[in-house]
Amino acid sequence: MTRRTKYLLDESDLPTQWYNIVPDLPEPPPPPLHPGTREPVTPADLAPLFPAALIEQEVSTDRHIDIPAEVLDVYRLWRPSPLYRAHRLEAALNTPARIYYKYEGGSPAGSHKPNTAVPQAFYNAQEGITRLTTETGAGQWGSALAFAGAVFGLDCEVWQVRASYDQKPYRRLMMETYGATVHPSPSDRTAAGRAVLADHPDSPGSLGIAISEAVEVAAADPGARYALGSVLNHVLLHQTVIGEEALRQFELAGDRPDLIIGCTGGGSNFAGLTFPFLREKLAGRGTPVIRAVEPAACPSLTRGVYAYDFGDTAGLTPLLKMHTLGHDFIPDPIHAGGLRYHGMSPLLSHIYHLGLIEAVAIGQSECFAAGVRFARTEGILPAPEPTHALAACIREALRCKETGEEKVILTALCGHAHLDLPAYGRYLAGEVVDHDLPEAAIQDALARLP
Ligand SMILES: *Cc1c(COP(=O)(O)O)cnc(C)c1O
């Protein structure tokens, strides 16, 4: 029998509902608080920033939410996405483990981000909004929203973290080709940006600063709203199409995962893949271990605290209870720009706090080594972010080689690296180093928690 490499679903198998994990959790997650009153935020507090449909999803306790037909039509450009069995990587590692990856790099932007950019643009357009503002770290989110804005006729304005703006000129050109306007962040166009530049004229920027800038501009324009590519409940919700498809693909494969591994920046690709499996686990169907992998340079789950903090640097957002390194913590400009966020999704933080998932932090050089190993066996060049998950997969596969265990490992290959090649260039030239993150740097930022 010839061996199967890809498990493919038909377009007619595309999930028609997103999965909301909140009603299935043993305790509800703590609510976001108004920074002034410290009372739970109301939908009216959020209305200047988000359309009503997304605010409703943000606080929904419905287990399933219908995906609008207009969104499904756009999803069909690249969904369902393939589930691969990594036969060649397994052979190279000489492991008895079976490794599967769900590949999201086939989307127009090259990552999982369009799964939420498309519905966010759709709901905004439906409510008469004409302009969206946002931030981007790696450039993947900005590209995804620029694409979705083009589809639904919205102007899209993106603050791109300075380190990324300088390292990734092609990401900017991609956004501009889709019709978006791109500013480096910190910029002199906002009070938040000017405040950072006054103290640090050479600031490499951070997602927290870029969020402050995009929020400030959206809040001042009644025709504009702000869009966030990760962290919030509705973003994680939209990403669950990944896991719903993967569940069906594992049925086709006649297999089931023992260990599910994903990288976490704000938590959305990880949640998207794992929440449907966690639903099955909580219902007593299967017992997979679920492991988040974060960069050693920005370890919010493994070295941060679980506390109320701002989602942005300037303190413009509601207070979110999350694992955080402190809202003004500026991580080293590592190449995995999508993982350079000081906090973690409040919903995922709550789930981690409940002990339903585990977390590890891995340094850059091991991750790039894993990315190169993957490229040379499976062919796809992984974005720097999912190399963190691949490094953890390889650690586990090598452990299985020692023990002889035929563990089934599933990971999210959430993006490709075609516009991240300078990072690989630096790795191949021996220039990627592991930054030591001293405990004092974390404690310093945590001392300024609100
Ligand atoms: C944005 C991004 C991430 C980090 O965001 P999450 O919300 O944690 O998924 C990871 N990988 C890629 C490819 C991204 O574009």
What does this structure look like?
InterPro entries: Trp_synth_b-like, Trp_synth_beta, Trp_synth_beta/beta-like, TrpB-like_PALP, TrpB-like_PALP_sf. It catalyses: (1S,2R)-1-C-(indol-3-yl)glycerol 3-phosphate + L-serine = D-glyceraldehyde 3-phosphate + L-tryptophan + H2O. By secondary structure, the chain is an alpha/beta fold. It folds into two domains: 6-12 and 69-110 and 240-446, 3-Layer(aba) Sandwich (Rossmann fold), CATH 3.40.50.1100; 48-62 and 112-233, Rossmann fold, CATH 3.40.50.1100. Helices cover 41% and strands 16% of the residues. It has 19 helices and 15 strands. Pyridoxal-5'-phosphate binds next to helix 6 and helix 13.
How would you describe the shape? globular
How confident is the prediction overall: mean pLDDT? Answer: 96
What is the end-to-end distance? 61 Å
Q: How many helical stretches?
A: 19
Number of strands: 15
Number of domains: 2
- Percent of residues in helices: 40-55%
Topology:
Elements: E1 6-7, E2 17-19, H1 43-46, H2 52-58, E3 64-66, H3 69-75, E4 83-85, H4 87-93, E5 98-103, H5 114-126, E6 131-136, H6 140-152, E7 155-161, H7 162-167, H8 169-177, E8 181-185, H9 191-199, H10 207-219, E9 224-226, H11 233-239, H12 241-253, E10 259-263, H13 268-282, E11 289-295, H14 300-303, E12 305-310, E13 319-324, H15 346-353, E14 358-362, H16 364-378, H17 386-403, E15 408-413, H18 421-428, H19 439-446
Parallel strand pairs: 5-15, 6-7, 6-9, 7-8, 10-11, 10-15, 11-14
Antiparallel strand pairs: 1-4, 2-3, 4-5, 12-13
Helix pairs in contact: 2-11, 3-5, 4-16, 5-6, 6-8, 9-10, 11-13, 12-13, 16-17
Pyridoxal-5'-phosphate binds at residues 111, 113, 138, 140-141, 229-230, 263-270, 338-339, 383, 385-386, 414-415.
Keywords: Amino-acid biosynthesis, Aromatic amino acid biosynthesis, Lyase, Pyridoxal phosphate, Tryptophan biosynthesis
Pfam families: PALP (PF00291)
Subunit structure: Tetramer of two alpha and two beta chains.
